C-alpha cells in the first residue's frame, strides 16, 4: 500500500493542499528561460541596431562623421569642446552598436561611463544627451556586471529626468535605457537557473535596480508619455519597459507601483500591435505570479475576457504570455478560478491542448491541472467542456515533458472528483496511456502514477467495480508493468507496486480500505 503520508506530502504541491507552489514555479521559470532569453536577446539586438527614428533632433546640421579609435574617444569625451565631446560620444555609440560582439567591456574599462552620465544632463545639447543615452542603453544591454556599471555610474536619475525632455528622440532613448536596466532581473534569473549546486535563488540586483527606478518617480513620467498620437515604435518601448518594471518576485514590485501601472496595461491590452500586446501580457503574467491578492489586482481590472480572446491568437508571442497569465490566475482562489472559467478559458483550452507547438500544449496542460485541483464543480466544468479526450491524447502521444503535466492533471482530478466524475475519467481512456508511463525514467512520475492507480482501485472497491477495473488494467498490460516494478531499485516504488499487487491482485481480500488521500479543505 502506498505510504499515505508521502502521498499527502505530494498533494501539498497541488493548489489546495498547502498552496505551496513555489517549487513548481521555479521549475516553470527554468523551463521557459530559453523562450524568454530568445525573446529578450532579439529585443536587445534591435536596440543595438536602431536607426535614427525621429527628425526632431536630426533635422539640424549633422555632426561631422569621424572614425575614432578607443584612445581618441577617451580623449574626446574629456575635451572642453562640446562638439568634440559629441563626436567622441557618437563614435562610442557606434562601437557599442555593432551587431556582433560590441566592445562593452573595453568601453567600461576605459572609464567612459561617468562622462556619458554627465552628458545626459547637458540640456542645451540634446544631440549629446541622445548619443550618451544610446551608448548607455547598449552597455546596459550586456551582462549583469555591465548593467551594474551603468547603475553605479549614476545613470538612473538623469535618465528618468530625460523622460521629460521636449525632444521625443531623447525621451525614447531614455525609455530604452531604463528598460534594459530594469531587465537586470532576467539576467539574474538566467544566471541562477544554470548555476550548479545552488539551493536557493539570491535576490540579485534586479529588484534593487527596478525599485530604484520606481522610487525615482519613473512610472508617472513613463505613463505621461503615452498619448493618442504617440508613434507605435515609441509605445512599444514604453510597454516593454513597464513590463520589466513588473518583473521579479523577490521581492515583488510595491503595491503602489502595481496599481499605478495596471490601468495603463488594461488599456494597452486593447491595442492592435502584436509587440505591444505581447509585452502587456508578459507584464500581467509577472503580476499574477504568486499571492492571491496580486492575482486579485489584475482580475479586478476586468481583463479576463480579453486575455481569453488573446489565447486564440495565431501569434505565438501573444498566445504564450496570455495563456501563462490565465494559468497563473487559476492557481488562485476558487473564486478567481471561477472567474477565469466564466470568461471562457476552458472553451479555449481544448484547442490549446491540441496546439501544434509543444510549449503551448505544456502550458495548457499546466493550466488544466490547476483547474482540476479545485472543487468538484470545477472538475465538472472540465468534463462539460470535453477536455478529457485531449488530455488522454497528450498522455498517449505528447512529448514526455507534456505527459508529466498531464499526469499531474489526472492526479489532481482523481483526488478531488466525485465517484461519478472518477468513473468518467477512467472510462475516458486515460488508464492505458497512464499505465504505459510506468516505464518512464522519471521516478517522481512513476510514483505519482502508482498512487493514482492505488486510488482508482480503492474507489472502485467502494463502488463494487474493482473487478471490472482489474480486468481493464489486465487487458492493457498494466498489471504486468506493476509487477515488474516490484523489483525496482527505488525502495518506495517497489514497495508501492508490491502493496498494489498484494492488496488488489493476490486473490485475497483483507477488507482493509485505504483512507481517501483526496480529501480537500
UniProtKB/TrEMBL annotation:
Keywords: Protein transport, Repeat, Transport. ARM repeats lie at residues 111-154, 154-182, 302-344. GO terms for cellular component: cytoplasm; nucleus. Functions in nuclear protein import. One of its GO terms (molecular function) is nuclear import signal receptor activity. Residues 1-57 form the IBB domain. SUPFAM superfamilies: ARM repeat. This is Importin subunit alpha. One of its GO terms (biological process) is protein import into nucleus. SMART domains: ARM. PANTHER family: IMPORTIN ALPHA. Belongs to the importin alpha family.
Amino acid at each position: 500500500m502506498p505510504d499515505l503520508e508521502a502521498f499527502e506530502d505530494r498533494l501539498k504541491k497541488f493548489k489546495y493542499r498547502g498552496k505551496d507552489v513555489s517549487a513548481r514555479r521555479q521549475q516553470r521559470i527554468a523551463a521557459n528561460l530559453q523562450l524568454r532569453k530568445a525573446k529578450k536577446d532579439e529585443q536587445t539586438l534591435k536596440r543595438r541596431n536602431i536607426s535614427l527614428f525621429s527628425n526632431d533632433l536630426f533635422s539640424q546640421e549633422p555632426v561631422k562623421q569621424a572614425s575614432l579609435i578607443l584612445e581618441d574617444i577617451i580623449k574626446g569625451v574629456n575635451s572642453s569642446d562640446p562638439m568634440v565631446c559629441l563626436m567622441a560620444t557618437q563614435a562610442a555609440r557606434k562601437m557599442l552598436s555593432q551587431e556582433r560582439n560590441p566592445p562593452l567591456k573595453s568601453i567600461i574599462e576605459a572609464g567612459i561611463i561617468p562622462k556619458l552620465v554627465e552628458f545626459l544632463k547637458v540640456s542645451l545639447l540634446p544631440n549629446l544627451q541622445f548619443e550618451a543615452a544610446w551608448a548607455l542603453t547598449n552597455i546596459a544591454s550586456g551582462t549583469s556586471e555591465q548593467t551594474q556599471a551603468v547603475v553605479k555610474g549614476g545613470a538612473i536619475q538623469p535618465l528618468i529626468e530625460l523622460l521629460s525632455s521636449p525632444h521625443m528622440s531623447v525621451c525614447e532613448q531614455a525609455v530604452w535605457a531604463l528598460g534594459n536596466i530594469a531587465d537586470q532581473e532576467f539576467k539574474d534569473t538566467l544566471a541562477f537557473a544554470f548555476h550548479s549546486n545552488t539551493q536557493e535563488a539570491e535576490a540579485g540586483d534586479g529588484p534593487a535596480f527596478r525599485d530604484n527606478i520606481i522610487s525615482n518617480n519613473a512610472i508617472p513620467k513613463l505613463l505621461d508619455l503615452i498619448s493618442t498620437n504617440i508613434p507605435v515604435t515609441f509605445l512599444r518601448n514604453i510597454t516593454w519597459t513597464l513590463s520589466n518594471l513588473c518583473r521579479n518576485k523577490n521581492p515583488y514590485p510595491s503595491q503602489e507601483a502595481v496599481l499605478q501601472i495596471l490601468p495603463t496595461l488594461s488599456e494597452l491590452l486593447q491595442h492592435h500591435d502584436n509587440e505591444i500586446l505581447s509585452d502587456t501580457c508578459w507584464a500581467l503574467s509577472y503580476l499574477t505570479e504568486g499571492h492571491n491578492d496580486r492575482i486579485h489586482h489584475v482580475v479586478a481590472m476586468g481583463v479576463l475576457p480579453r486575455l481569453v480572446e488573446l489565447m486564440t491568437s495565431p501569434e505565438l508571442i501573444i498566445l504564450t504570455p496570455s495563456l501563462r497569465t490565465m494559468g497563473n490566475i487559476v492557481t488562485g482562489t476558487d473564486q478567481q478560478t471561477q472567474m477565469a472559467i466564466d470568461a471562457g478559458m476552458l472553451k479555449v483550452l481544448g484547442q490549446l491542448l491540441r496546439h501544434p507547438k509543444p510549449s503551448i500544449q505544456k502550458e495548457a496542460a499546466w493550466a488544466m491541472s490547476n483547474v482540476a485541483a479545485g472543487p468538484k464543480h470545477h472538475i465538472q466544468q472540465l468534463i462539460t467542456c470535453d477536455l478529457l479526450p485531449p488530455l488522454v491524447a497528450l498522455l498517449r502521444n505528447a512529448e514526455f515533458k507534456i505527459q508529466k503535466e498531464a499526469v499531474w492533471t489526472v492526479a489532481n482530478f482523481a483526488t478531488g472528483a466525485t465517484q461519478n466524475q472518477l468513473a468518467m475519467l477512467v472510462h475516458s481512456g486515460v488508464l492505458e496511456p497512464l499505465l504505459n508511463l510506468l516505464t518512464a525514467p522519471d521516478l517522481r512520475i512513476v510514483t505519482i502514477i502508482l498512487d493514482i492507480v492505488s486510488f482508482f482501485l480503492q474507489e472502485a472497491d467502494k463502488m463494487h467495480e474493482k473487478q471490472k477495473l482489474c480486468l481493464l488494467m489486465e487487458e492493457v498490460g498494466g498489471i504486468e508493468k506493476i509487477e515488474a516494478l516490484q523489483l525496482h531499485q527505488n525502495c518506495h516504488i517497489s514497495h508501492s507496486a508490491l502493496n498494489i499487487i498484494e492488496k488488489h491482485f493476490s486473490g485475497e481480500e483483507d477488507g482493509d480500505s485505504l483512507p481517501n488521500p483526496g480529501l480537500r479543505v
